[in-house]
Structures are given as C-alpha cells and as structure tokens.
Design a protein that fits this description.
About 15% of the residues lie in helices and about 45% in strands. The chain contains four helices and 18 strands. A hairpin with a 6-residue loop joins strand 16 and strand 17. It folds into two domains: about 140 residues, Diaminopimelate Epimerase, Chain A, domain 1 (Roll), CATH 3.10.310; about 140 residues, Roll (Diaminopimelate Epimerase, Chain A, domain 1), CATH 3.10.310.
Amino acid sequence: MVKNIPFTKMHGLGNCYIYIDLISRPLEMGTYAETAVKVADQNTGIGADGMILILPSNKADVFMRIFNKDGSEAKNCGNGLRCVAKYAFEHNLVKEQKFTIETLGGIVEAEIILAGQHVERVTIDMGAPILERKNIPMAGNPVGRPVIKESVFLEGKGYSVTAVSMGNPHALFFVDNIEEAPIHELGPILADTHPLFPEGVNVGFIEVLTDNTIEYRVWERGSGITQACGTGACAAVVAGILENRLKKDQNITVHLSGGDLDIIWSSDTEHVLMTGAATTICEGTFYL
C-alpha cells in the first residue's frame, strides 16, 4: 500500500534535510531509518543529507530526531535545529520567539529573528561543549581529560587533533590552507569505523584567517562532505579557543561552503551560541 508522506525540504547553509511534521500530522511510515534512506536518495527519492522528524516532546516545546542519509541516527544537528525552529514558529507549533527543542543530545533553547512575518535567522543556545575524552567519546588515555592538540597517526602520517562534542562528536584539525585540507583522506578513515571513535565522528578542518574569522570544512559521519555543519562550526570555535588561536566572548564568523555562521563561546555561562540562516526550499508529498 502506497503511503503519502507530506514533507518540507529545508536547508541551513546548504545542509539540507527532508522535514516531516509528526505533530500536526501523525503518520505511519515504517521504520524511520529505512524511510530516511529512501527520501534522501537523489536518484529515486527527494535527495537530501538525511531526514529530520518534528515530534511532540514531554520535556520541551518540540522534539527533533535526525537521521543521516545512510539511516544512522544523529544526536544533534545545528543546521537542523535552526530549520526546525523556523518551521515550528511559522507553522504555529510554538507561539513565542524563544522556545526549547529536545534532541537526543539534550535540550537547547532557540530564539528566532524575524523579517516581517518570516523567520530570517535563528540563534540556538547549544549549551556547554563536552570536552572529557570518555564523554565525546574517544578511546585511549587519559580517559577523563580533554583532548587538545593530541598527536595521532593515520595512514602512516602524524596529525594533531582536538576533540569536542556539541551533542555530536567532532575531531578537529587545523590547517594552513583550507583548500589543501586532507578531507578526502581522513574523512572516510575516521568518520564511521576508526577505533579511536567508537560511535563515529565528524571530521573537521579549520583555517584561522583572523582573530575573529575562520574557514571550516567537514566530513560528516553517515553523510560524507556537506555544505555546512552547525555543531561542527561550534566545535571548531571551541577548538580554536582551547588551542589559544581564538578568544572567548568574541563573535567568531565561521565561513562554510554553504555560507556563514556567527559563533560565541560565553565565559559567563560556558554555553556556545550559534546564529545563522534557515531556508525553506519546497514542500510536497513523498509516496512511500
């Protein structure tokens, strides 16, 4: 039996997902992982980096679940959070400009910035970064300490890595030239199967341009190279501060392939604030 699945396709700086509203329209759609693979396929589906479900929450105003294009489930997604915030406000799932979103990585606060009646930009309080090795998680010793400029050998070459979790784990590498970053070499090695990261990891590369501007590129676990990664941009700024390349309490502009994000790591709250655009591409019905 064919199932009709209403959807909205949205992107945050080119990081696009298929959004399905299960608050307004509860649906029977089979397993979420299988559906994500089908809708994300660019040849036989809609085409996207994955699927995001908007669900009721007992803990927050809405609940977001994220599935990558390979069907694996992620705990958090910064670009997805901004799009869910835009959708929730514009479709009257929430009434206030500040509200909360539950993810598997925790509850975050969203604040929408309006241009007329439409949401132009969204600020997400991403909470405090997770720095302890065991909580990222990353294998090895010392278990309870941060991973800052740690030497690792991959494919016979030595690298310096800083690891941060923003609800999703990130392995961060600083490079002199972002265009020469070994994203195609290290991304596939680390992202999904390397023993250093038992739950997989997003692999990010950072070039510091000025004291408040960086370039960032990412290979995301379960998706490969994407145009943008919100949690990765946050993790990149945190890594820059941990390595004394950037400063706390300063707005850092992160240039990604799909556009820019503004990130601040506050010393008052220890929380990371992310501000950026969210865009609706199209709406329609998927026949499952």
